Amino acid sequence: ADAITADQAGSADQGEVWLPKAKEIFRRLGPVGPLAVIAATLPAISGFVLLGVMKWIAPWLRTHDGTGVAIYTAGYALAAGFAILPTYAQSIMGGFAFGRVVGSLAALGGVFGASMIGYVVARRASGDRVNALIDEQPKWKAVRDALIGGSFVRVLGIITLIRIPSNSPFAITNLVLGSTRVNPIAYALGTAIGIAPRTIAVAVVGAGLSDWDPSAGSRRLFIIGIIVTIVVFAI
Questions:
Q1: For residue 198, which of 174, 176, 175, 220 has the smallest C-alpha distance?
Q2: At 99, which helix (H) or strand (E)?
Q3: Which of 67, 87, 135, 189 is least surrounded by CB atoms within 10 angstroms?
């Protein structure tokens, strides 16, 4: 009983110590902290809203030909780059509005533009805060250096792998990679290579939306995403 009581007291003490430490870390992150909260919550909510109004937006984009494609691509880049809308919902709308080929190409342009906007925003918002904080923690520093502190080819491979799974969080990934100041060329190439398959796949799904079973499609994409994620983590 004394041992259990001591353990409970120790757990309580750890909790009391952890909370102020977490608050201090959040404070030291500066703008990156609020950006992380937004990136983790807003896209998940707004994606359902976009899918709900897609049947009105897509026809308008479709009837404006080249102008509609340009508006869609620019809007995609800005909305996903600033973590307002998720990539999957916008890619679905691209396929639904423009078809498989044009929709896929427009979605690819939008998602790549969004990744670069997200990188610039994260890098400017973070400054040297995130890396300075990581450098103070030996374990955190070891993980960062192992993942994105090696050669160009290694960093490129890591970023590509991170981007491949369909359930990889786009906005959070942009924020983490930008705030840790990963090599921008490796970031751009790895993002373009890794995110292309999933973006095209979702745009193709959107193109066939009229005869597509949303629940069955969602299950398929979820299962495929889990499998790909396990493979990526294993590598």
A1: 220
A2: none
A3: 67
